[in-house]
User: What shape does this take?
Amino acid sequence: MTIPDSGFMMENGVSCLPCTPEEEKNIVTHLRDESERNLKEGNLYFVISSRWFQRWERYVGIDADENLIGNQSSDSRHLNGASSMVAERPGLIDNSDIIRNGSDCDCKENEIQLRRMLMEGQDYVLVPEGVWEKLHEWYKGGPALPRKMILQGVHHRKFDVEVYPLCLKLIDSRDESQSVIWLSRMASVTELFRRVCALRGIEQDKARIWDYFNKRKHAQLFASNKSLEESNLQMDQDILLEQVDGHHSSRFGMDCTGNELALVLSEPTRSSLTIAGGPTLSNGHSSGSRSNLYPGSSLSSGLTDIDDGFNSYNSVRKGEKGGLAGLQNLGNTCFMNSALQCLVHTPPLVEYFLKDYSDEINTENPLGMHGELALAFGELLRKSWSSGQTAIAPRVFKGKLARFAPQFSGYNQHDSQELLAFLLDGLHEDLNRVKQKPYIEMKDSDGRPDEEVAAESWKNHKARNDSVIVDVCQGQYKSTLVCPVCSKISITFDPFMYLSLPLPSTITRTMTVTVFYGDGSGFPMSYTVSVLKNGFCKDLLLALGTACCLKSDENLLLAEVYENKIYRYLEMPLEPLISIKDDEHIVAFRFQKKGIGKTKLVIFHRWQEKSTSGHLKSGTELFGTPLVTYLGEDQPSGADIETAVSKVLSPFKSMNSSAKAHIDKENGFLSDGLDEQCSSSDAQSVENAELKGTLSTDLSFLLLLTDDRFKNFKAFKKDTLFESGKILRVVLDWTDKEQELYDASYLKDIPEVYKAGFAAKKTRQEAISLSSCLDAFLMEEPLGPDDMWYCPRCKEHRQAIKKLDLWMLPEIIVFHLKRFTYGRYLKNKIDTYVNFPIHNLDLSKYVMNKDGQSYVYELYAISNHYGGLGGGHYTAYAKLIDENRWYHFDDSHVSPVNESDIKTSAAYLLFYKRVRSESKVETGEVSHSHSIS
Assistant: This one.
């Protein structure tokens, strides 16, 4: 594609329209694609306000294209009514809403800083340098906010645009002045020296720079190729500059507490591979604390970076009250602190990491992190249980996280569940007792007993995975897949480390369908039913049949009505329900199975108009809902069609007021309430009594035969014969006679499948229990269209029916409440209160493996999330088992809390410990809980 060059200029901030909207879109799309193909470290990207960029997208029509892609099932039928208005062209590029000081900022361009806590996609977008140059050429404005692409991670290398470079606060000990330095976290310490010395006018060989986190000397920084991230430097932290020529001395010469040990780099467990800390936001660090790096030394309250330089194998001081140390927020790290507090208060892990676990560290596992993650976590746990109430700054642990899981580095808030999943898996691989994993070929179940297949699967799993995490946190579930076409059944037994439970409202949807009687035996009624989001039309038919008390000798035919025509029939049982959108109108026609003939008759409605000369003429616009019935004759005639039309219209006969008193009509339809009592014979008898005897085959309707495109219309006579087995379409022209005889309101304004406002008024949110979430998790459901299963018998991918069952439960079970929902264009958080037990959670009825064991659990920790998606705040509740008391861990703040106050709608992760009966032997309980006979 050749990109046209634009030679047009802006005059007084107004564009001369260098390109059409379509040309601008094509140019930008091409440049973006080209940039994606040439990703490399150092590429420039520019930050642009989402507010301005969305206006540009609307102008060039990108929004319309995305909506078309996102609603493929609606395709061309919705385009006819689409607005032809063209969005207004945006003005100058305006980034004032995403920078500090906004439009009042008079800084130099390289000094302009973004507002903190911005979210990509919501507050800003990133565009490649080429796109920025074109947009700036067309629109001018700004200011320009360039950012570089960096490459981070060890095992999983990841390109990332560093939107927020590292901000360091330089304190010059010579005059105690303060300056701010902005550098990439991937910049070297040598580059930091160069910048500091140039800024403060000092020769490099006379400069000494200290990591001065929390106003304490932690380590001297030496000029090297080591990155600032590897050096554990955090966003907004202090660094200290000292001159070493002897002419300048200051109070910064040694730690104000007299702890000279803080002046040396003492971290024996760090290796040259250690990478620490990405840019973060400090929530304010308290000073006046004391840093003691030797175990057993006295500790006072306050903040200290005691995670640095702590020996993994030092013993905890006896008699010291532990488990009450807070974790300092290193900048949007509350998600990490919340998950960590839950783990460091997990009794079996506390017992394990307080012992000597050095023999179990696996440094050779290619799936692990050379033991570094386990060591960092072990150090952190030991400090949590030995530092009294002194808050810990987990800089080293965060550094390991950035090194091995770059998705958690950077500036934005992350998900505590995603971090927990990474930690459990990472700790397992770092502590895996299996040094050489054997290759094991998995066998199919082939109808063998579940006990045999489950034991074999667990044995194979343990042959490759054997660690304290497997011992304590892993259970086993049974997964059954059934092919919807050939009914092939596949059964597997798989391990799990936590259970992600859907909230019932996230896996179901409500759908409103209007049911018409195809034989004219009753009034149309609308029903609202609940079905699985990933379900099929057969599920909708089943729910609808239950709601309308469908008899065993009756059938339902689903159809979509659009612009007063039948747009499509939903006759395939396995048609996915996601193909039905909320704004569509779905009807169902109810028939006696024995009354279904070979010839389908579709009746459309049209008003007949009077011409200026007084003669009747057919109108051009259809109205109402088409009606569908069947003709039973082998060779139907025109008289049969007229009879069928009369019969189908019979329920709409105008009635006297006494008859209407029996009917609660709302928006032209009977309300759901009339039919909720499935003994509908009383209601039907009233209707049939009024309608009996009113049918007449002598009525002469104005009926015209038409085709599927409504292009041709042809009259027919009563004795006209039609070929059997075809679809006949007729248009009924409503004259004054029909309008007087029939009530057409029943055919109008059928409700949409789902209307948020209407449903919100009618439906009161029900309470959700943990058991209902577990039931939803274990419910049989079809796989999503993006998660198809390859059927070995069909040799094709199928949308199989999946069923999960719990086979074996671990000592520690973690429930993840899936509060966050993600769609293509919508992200949402569900704040519904989930009622969960604190004591005596009995899961025995859910366990398929009936081994006689008791599966009763007790809650000991909760990870909470407050606020909205992409932001908010995480805290934790944890129970000190020895004290039998709950505490609230809010970053560095720790306070006792009543047990009655820990159940809130913020609960996100629930941690339960299995309660062992006293009769069971303590030794070997963990392995016994996993044994399968």
The mean pLDDT is 77. The longest strand covers residues 616-631.
